[in-house]
Amino acid sequence: MPHNGAMNYDHAFHAGNHADVLKHLVLLTLIDALARKPAPFFVLDTHAGRGDYALDSSAAQATGEAALGVRRLHDWSLAQPLLAPALARYLRAVRPALEARRYPGSPLLAADTLRENDRLACCELQPEAAQQLRSLFARDPRVGIHQRDGYAALKALLPPKEKRGLVLIDPPYEAQLAEFDQVIDALKEGLARWPQGIFALWYPIKQRRALAPFYRRAAALPARSALVAELMRHADDSPLRLNGSGMLVLNPPWKLDESLLGALPQMGRALGETHDPWRLDWLRREST
Ligand SMILES: C[S@@+](CC[C@H](N)C(=O)[O-])C[C@H]1O[C@@H](n2cnc3c(N)ncnc32)[C@H](O)[C@@H]1O
Known about the structure:
Helix content is 40%, strand content 18%. It is an alpha/beta fold. It has an eight-stranded mixed β-sheet, sandwiched between helices. Strands 2-3 form a two-stranded antiparallel sheet.
């Protein structure tokens, strides 16, 4: 898979924003579902980032995105008598880092949930970020770090010997709408190699109507079922900013929709500044 080599994206500017909140809550809900069965599972994080972010770095402070994301959700949650279990679980996972003015990336959150025989493979193209991941997990034999193209890794690392597990695809979308073509191709490739795997794809929402071809193509993928969960901070009326984001989950585990149906309205209430801040839709349902 070609990538253009010019990488400007740095997740340090965005760590802990509303998009990370949605992505990581869904990620933890998926991994918890896998951990309910005793057989070992495998997680592939194709675009892993650096794994751990300082919220008082100049990058994070320049955007202030975490203040309007995870911190706002955390503060909001303190006054709530009853939190949805998936949301309470996410906040428990990130609280120690927040107290240290940090935010954990997907590799740390996933690794915290692995059992002794589960495995995590993280791909990251940016050399410094890959090096930071290597240091973070130097003493964890369950975690492998690959400084390589995450899309190509779908071919190289799937199917895993464990047979069960999850692929998280979280690219920077520097190529804008063209990246949607790439992710659909990547999902096709992944499903062809690992039809029973769970695939979770994060995607940005600027104007939802521009995503119509993506939804159509996602619904036509050869998965048993496909669910989308979306969280909007702003109305989807400007092509210039990240108004919200979504997670497409192929082959979701049983009752994922129920878990998210509890958490999404609460996240929407805490973070949304629009009257319609969340959505949960089946693009394709398993035929019974
Ligand atoms: C959105 S960030 C990942 C955040 C991370 N998944 C998390 O949730 O904490 C995207 C990352 O992908 C990396 N990247 C960009 N193109 C890549 C590629 N083709 N293969 C692997 N990593 C890539 C970027 O350097 C960046 O660190």
